[in-house]
């Protein structure tokens, strides 16, 4: 069961970094063609000095009887496929639009300059959405290049894999982005689905899509100049949780060699029994209550499924996720994969724009009580709020640590494998607004991808983003992030890298609140 304090897990990503970069008008095909297992592809000019291959099917359409089943390999095509446009986005709600406008306005951005989220911003949607995109440096190379596979976030219910990560190709890596099934289409569990599965499991179809995309990479990425023995998976928020789940999953073993989890939680999932109970309730709300509920569910229009879903979450179903991720990590399931993990210093400031976590000291005490009554006074001393007007800032500090920073540190502390822990403190927005909101949830993605989207980054943020690109691409290349000219980033013991301006190494003794988190989390998983 998800821990009570992880209240942000069901929230969509509100920043412009969630949306794909705008497509260039008149995108021209290039002479370069490649052959993959299903046919030939014609590339196009990509962002910067790259060649892009867009909208490549990596699995057959998961429609009709294939809805809520593991993905099957894509079907071959005849002739040359013009890989010149992103494939359809997976079906998703469009409820975040109002919130997006509030957030972009609060950060000083131009709402009209930022594509809207949801289907309107992500183009057409379709259940036939299992496609990926490859971005390769245009310049020739004498050896195979490392590969970086980006897993988008969005609460397992929103967003798409587009052109956002393509900028990293200029660092000499081959970049892959992809779509995976979302919401109920990606994560519905139901006793009938479990019964028909040879693995007696249901609920993680979106994760199965991610694994299928990684299998495609192993079989085909050499055609684009990529090295299948040097694949790094990296993702943000729900994408970061996905990274941890894949690193711990026996089904994904050997499909990648390194991993980067940005602003994840503990990668925690609900029990299969809980997920099935929720699935039965959803089926009943859709009228699928006959002796064959799957027939009715598979015939239900997508619009009805989108209207019925609320929060979605992967399930510990004994197959893709054999046991809770923190338990698997403590038992060494991920130790063979070098890992970069971290969060931003003020993750929660972006959520507090539309949903203040606490407005006065009484509400603040109730918030802290979710960690356990015995911890309240200690937490009040670590995150003090002497007056009601101190509560908003204190609650943001507390929730930023409790939901993001401390989980990342907890995982770094539990692993025996090589791990590098960071906290990004650089503001991604210049001026007074940047000082107010600081390094919010998603700001590290803006830094890494140099994603301005109508909100200028500012020179310090550009410098930090450049350094992140160097650390990330060096890690993909060699399995460790350090290179000459950058601050030396030690393997985690008791130190972490502060991705601020300047970048520096700090002791994690300055994060005393995480000691309480460790105690509560250890007790939870000891039950």
From TrEMBL:
Residues 32-499 form the Carboxylesterase type B domain. InterPro entries: AB_hydrolase_fold, CarbesteraseB, Carboxylesterase_B_AS, Type-B_Carboxylest/Lipase. PROSITE patterns: CARBOXYLESTERASE_B_1 (PS00122), PROKAR_LIPOPROTEIN (PS51257). Its EC number is 3.1.1.-. The keyword Transmembrane helix does not apply. Keywords: Hydrolase. PANTHER family: CARBOXYLESTERASE (PTHR11559). Belongs to the type-B carboxylesterase/lipase family. This is Carboxylic ester hydrolase. It comes from Pendulispora brunnea.
């Amino acid at each position: 069961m998800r821990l009570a304090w992880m209240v942000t897990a069901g929230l969509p990503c509100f920043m412009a970094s969630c949306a794909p970069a705008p497509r260039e008008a008149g995108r021209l095909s290039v002479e370069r063609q490649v052959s993959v297992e299903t046919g030939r592809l014609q590339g196009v000019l990509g962002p910067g000095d790259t060649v892009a291959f867009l909208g490549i099917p990596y699995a057959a359409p998961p429609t009709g009887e294939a809805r809520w089943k593991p993905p099957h390999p894509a079907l071959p095509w005849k002739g040359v496929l013009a890989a010149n446009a992103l494939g359809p986005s997976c079906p998703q709600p469009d409820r975040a639009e109002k919130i997006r406008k509030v957030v972009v306005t609060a950060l000083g951005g131009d709402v009209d300059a930022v594509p809207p989220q949801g289907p309107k911003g992500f183009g057409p949607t379709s259940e036939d959405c299992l496609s990926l995109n490859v971005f390769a440096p245009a310049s020739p190379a004498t050896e195979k290049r490392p590969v970086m596979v980006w897993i988008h976030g969005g609460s397992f219910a929103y967003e798409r894999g587009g052109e956002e990560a393509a900028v990293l190709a200029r660092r000499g890596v081959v970049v892959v982005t992809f779509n995976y099934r979302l919401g109920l289409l990606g994560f519905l569990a139901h006793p009938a689905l479990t019964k028909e599965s040879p693995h007696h499991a249901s609920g993680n179809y979106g994760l199965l899509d991610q694994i299928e995309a990684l299998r495609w990479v192993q079989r085909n990425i050499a055609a684009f100049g990529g090295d299948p023995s040097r694949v790094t998976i990296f993702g943000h928020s729900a994408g970061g949780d996905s990274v941890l789940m894949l690193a711990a999953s026996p089904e994904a073993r050997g499909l990648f060699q390194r991993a980067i989890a940005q602003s994840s939680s503990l990668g925690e999932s609900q029990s299969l029994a809980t997920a099935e109970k929720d699935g039965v309730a959803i089926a009943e709300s859709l009228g699928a209550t006959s002796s064959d509920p799957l027939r009715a569910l598979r015939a239900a229009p997508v619009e009805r499924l989108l209207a019925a879903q609320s929060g979605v979450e992967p399930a510990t179903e004994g197959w893709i996720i054999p046991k809770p991720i923190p338990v698997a990590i403590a038992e060494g399931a991920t130790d063979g994969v070098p890992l970069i993990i971290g969060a931003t210093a003020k993750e929660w400031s972006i959520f507090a724009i539309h949903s203040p976590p606490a407005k006065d000291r009484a509400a603040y005490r109730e918030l802290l009580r979710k960690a356990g009554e015995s911890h309240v006074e200690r937490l009040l001393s670590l995150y003090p709020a002497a007056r009601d007007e101190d509560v908003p800032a204190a609650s943001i500090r507390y929730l930023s640590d409790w939901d993001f920073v401390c989980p990342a540190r907890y995982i770094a502390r539990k692993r025996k494998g090589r791990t590098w822990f960071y906290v990004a403190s650089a503001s991604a927005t210049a001026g007074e607004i940047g000082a107010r909101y600081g390094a919010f949830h998603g700001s590290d993605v803006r830094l890494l991808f140099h994603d301005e989207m109508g909100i200028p980054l500012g020179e310090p943020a550009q410098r930090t983003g450049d350094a992140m690109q160097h650390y990330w691409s060096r890690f993909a290349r060699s399995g460790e992030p350090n290179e000459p000219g950058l601050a030396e980033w030690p393997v985690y013991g008791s130190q972490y890298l502060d991705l601020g301006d300047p970048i520096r190494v700090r002791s994690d003794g300055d994060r005393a609140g995480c000691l309480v988190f460790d105690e509560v989390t250890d007790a939870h998983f000891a039950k």
